[in-house]
UniProtKB/TrEMBL annotation:
SUPFAM superfamilies: P-loop containing nucleoside triphosphate hydrolases, post-AAA+ oligomerization domain-like. Residues 17-31 have a biased composition (Basic and acidic residues). This is AAA ATPase central domain protein. It comes from Syncephalis pseudoplumigaleata. Belongs to the AAA ATPase family. RarA/MGS1/WRNIP1 subfamily. It holds the Pfam family MgsA_C. Residues 1-31, 418-439 are annotated as: Disordered. Keywords: ATP-binding, DNA replication, Nucleotide-binding. InterPro entries: AAA+_ATPase (IPR003593), AAA_assoc_2 (IPR032423), AAA_ATPase_RarA/MGS1/WRNIP1 (IPR051314), ATPase_AAA_core (IPR003959), DNA_pol3_clamp-load_cplx_C (IPR008921), MgsA_C (IPR021886), P-loop_NTPase (IPR027417). Residues 58-175 form the AAA+ ATPase domain. It comes from the Eukaryota. The keyword ATP-binding applies. Residues 422-439 have a biased composition (Low complexity). GO terms for molecular function: ATP binding; ATP hydrolysis activity; DNA binding; enzyme activator activity; single-stranded DNA helicase activity.
Length: 439
């Protein structure tokens, strides 16, 4: 059955098997229809909101936010095919202001001549600076074109608020190992259309694991493994898969084990106050191509979870380190990361914040939502005041902060969720201070 969108015939379901065998496997495997897209079922599955908008030809300007290789570019191209509108692709890392203005003008002329709105796809839109992003505002506001921006970064931080407010944000999930395996099996079938391929089933499982949910990485590594196997007369097995990762600089297994092992080793070294070990594991991650923002995020979490009230400056430094990584990039931000890693490792440790958070979560998730006591309630209207809201509240400064007043719900009075500072924390702080002074 042929579906329609806005009265237009939609493309029939078929996986792209592009005739040009010289094209990368990742491009030849790119699906042409929503039914063929692997993953993202919440968005483009039978009941997905984005699918409904596409098929009803009511696509808004949007931001597609998700990890690499999850289908952002594919979805943008599908929207163009389904709506039959002109499609223009730009890159935030390559194109400049003149390129943007030219694309805007062409979209404006196309709308005037044909009535159709151009699909303007901007990959890595977060790489455009704020001034460049502001250029989109009047055109998105007037509907000159439909903007589809793709980003791997949180748009709340990397896209200006004015543009963000004019776009619908759709979050794409990281593809699962089974999703990647399904894509790789399609790749094998496509490759075997030319000639049979000798391969091990567990090689595909291993490749799916190492690809960390990135379909593009998986397809590139598979293609390289196949090329190696055919040139040497071998078979595609686990060793061949790992060799393909080495040759394409993808050996750092961001899919799981080695990625998280190194991160875990760095965190546990900082927790154990071993600055040298923390630096070693962090250096390993950086040398393997780890995103410095990933490391900085772990440091921000660590500063509150493992240091907390023992040294509140740690959280400030960790946050400043994250900002430095955003501003500088590598390799310059390595100094800030090293500074922070050493500081966090040598800082006194306390888990009072973590324990308090865990205790509160347990109460909130497992007990009733008790009402706010009347004396703590906001009373902006006379009616609320007449109902007793805010009555008998004692303003602490009027009592020299010595007022006798309950702040928890009646049902929780007497419960303590935040532990008092312990002597062990003080001893920890003294020990770290003594250690630093002996250097």
């Amino acid at each position: 059955m042929v579906r329609t969108a806005g009265g237009k015939a939609l493309p029939s379901s078929s996986i792209s098997t592009r005739d040009d065998e010289r094209a990368p496997l990742s491009e030849r495997l790119r699906p042409r229809t929503l039914d063929d897209l692997v993953g993202q079922s919440e968005l483009v599955g039978p009941n997905g909101l984005l699918r409904h908008l596409i098929e009803s030809d009511r696509v808004p300007s949007m931001l597609l936010w998700g990890p690499p290789g999850t289908g952002k570019t594919t979805i943008a191209r599908m929207i163009a095919e389904y709506t039959r509108g002109p499609f223009k692709e730009l890159s935030g890392s390559i194109n400049n202001v003149s390129d943007l203005r030219e694309a805007f003008e062409r979209a404006k002329n196309s709308r005037a001549l044909t009535g159709q709105r151009t699909i303007l796809f901007v990959d890595e839109i977060h790489r455009l600076n704020r001034a460049q992003q502001d250029l989109f505002l009047p055109h998105v506001e007037r509907g000159t074109f439909i903007l589809i921006g793709a980003t791997t970064e949180n748009p709340s931080f990397r896209v200006c608020s004015a543009l963000l407010s004019r776009c619908r944000v759709f979050t794409l999930s990281r593809l699962t190992k089974d999703d990647i395996r399904q894509i790789l099996e399609r790749g094998i079938r496509l490759i075997e259309q030319k000639q049979p391929l000798d391969h091990d089933a567990d090689a595909l499982d291993h490749l799916a694991l190492m690809s960390d949910g990135d379909a593009r990485v998986a397809a590139q590594a598979l293609q390289l493994a196949v090329d190696i196997a055919r040139s040497t007369g071998g078979r595609v097995d686990k060793a061949m898969v790992e060799a393909s990762f080495k040759k394409s600089h993808l050996l750092y297994d961001q899919a799981g084990e080695e990625h998280y092992n190194l991160a875990s080793a760095m965190i546990k070294s900082m927790r154990g106050s071993d600055a040298s070990a923390a630096m070693y594991w962090m250096g390993r991650m950086l040398a393997s191509g780890e995103d410095p923002l990933f490391i900085a995020r772990r440091m921000v979490i660590f500063a509150s979870e493992d240091i907390g009230m023992a040294d509140s400056q740690a959280l400030m430094l960790a946050n400043q380190t994250f900002q430095a990584c955003q501003i500088l990039g590598r390799p310059e931000c390595d100094y800030a990361l090293s500074h922070c890693a050493i500081y966090l490792a040598e800082a006194p440790k306390s888990i009072r914040v973590k324990n308090a958070l865990m205790a509160i979560r347990s109460v909130v998730e497992n007990e009733e939502s008790w009402p706010v006591p009347f004396h703590l309630r906001n009373a902006p209207t006379q009616l609320m005041k007449s109902m007793g809201y805010g009555v008998n509240y004692k303003y602490p400064p009027d009592y020299d902060w010595k007022e006798d007043q309950q702040y928890l719900p009646v049902q929780l009075q007497g419960r303590r969720f935040v532990e008092p500072p312990s002597t062990s924390n003080a001893a920890n702080a003294n020990a770290n201070t003594d250690s630093a002074s002996n250097e």
